[in-house]
Structure prediction request, 462 residues.
Amino acid sequence: MVVTRFAPSPTGYLHIGGLRTALFSYLWARKNSGKFLLRIEDTDKARNSKEAADAILEAFKWLGLEHDGEITYQSQRDEIYAKYIKQLLDEGKAYRCYMSKEELKELRETQMANKQRTMYDGRYRDFNGTPPEGIEPVIRIKAPLSGDIVVRDGVKGDTVFKAEDILDDFVIARADGSPTYNFVVAVDDYLMGVTEVIRGDDHLSNTPKQIVVYDALGFKTPNFHHVPMIHNSEGKKLSKRDGATDVMAYKEMGYMPQTLLNFLVRLGWSHGDQEIFSMDEMRELFDPKNINKSASIYNTEKLDWLNSHYIKNTPNNELAKLLEQYGLLLTSHDKKEILLDALKERAKTLKEMAGLVYEIISTPTYYDQAAVKKAFKDDTVEILTLFKEKITTSEELHLPSDYHHIMQEVVDEMKIGFGKIGQPLRVALLGKMSGPGLDNVMAIIGRDETILRITNAIDRHS
Ligand code: GLU
Prediction:
């Protein structure tokens, strides 16, 4: 069975880079009818918080990414880690190191002065003497002193690390007994039955250390897939200046969950030149062997393009529900269909759409003066007055086409061009020149509101 996991450290919000590897892990598990597990790496009490862990879960909920089984919290697993540390000590695969901070510092300085790699020199590796007084020892693992550690990576191929270049007997438990990062990751991945580790390639350098832990404990290593980073258009690591990195900021800005998932799945993975993937397609097609080997480039236009696509293709009922998150209560609006149809094609984000809806449904209190100047001529009041009279007395007035016919009647009777009525009417209804088709606007706001807005505009300008 394929078992994947996402293992965030709860230090703040869920980062889009993290979400991307979470999505890859989720998809690969789903594709194989396997399991996608969640582990909160909250051992660093100074930097981790419950709020941050909850924020990650909230983001998962927004995106509809479901994990399997119970969440593993590393902060609750001290006893488990202690058991494996003891096992390694008992088997002579780890040992207590009594080096003081001063000694360690001195060693580093000497190594630096000699232009050597700074590393622990193994002085307590085979120590059986009497421990020095007053020092709480750390526990170090016996790492191989020579030979190769090979990370068999699904994305990068075999990456060979020379033991003598990168490893020393690294600390697996601090003086206070708390276990260290690479130790707990390896223990947990094994105990959780993880078969595929999909994570950012910023973790590649940790992997040989984790392999040392696996080997020492006699655990089988999982398959690794280290995913290249997301870069900005200048080829540098994505920062907040290039685009939001907090997943929930995308919700605030009005992106749909599908947009973000589709956007992220294509950042670093491809299936031919297909750009649009439904969740079902992603689950069916995702394969880590198609993860790109080079960094992927964050592209805001593509994000907006995808969001427009998903907005256009979302049924109005669902859209109305989604827009509630942006302060719009439309679910029971009787002209919801016309309203949403009129705006779906125009909005790049739900937030923008909510703004456009709001502009239509609120009576203008301000008129764009440049628009007034352009639209209001000597005969404008007469034209608007005739139009107003006609809609006041018209019997059938529901559909956009009903309003359109009346505009046409005015144009014919007064022998004027369409712009002569269209432009001032637009200013009267919306306070400015832009916006969706007027027949739609009037059908949405209805007869009384249309009359009110025209009256207001006439009063102001006659
Ligand atoms: N906790 C690590 C992080 O948030 C991830 C560890 C892993 O995936 O192995 O970067």
User: Anything to note?
Assistant: The pocket of glutamic acid is lined by residues 7-9, 41, 185, 199, 203 (CB under 6 Å). The chain has 19 helices and twelve strands. Residues 78-227 form a domain with the Rossmann fold fold (CATH 3.40.50.620). The two ends are 77 Å apart (CA to CA).
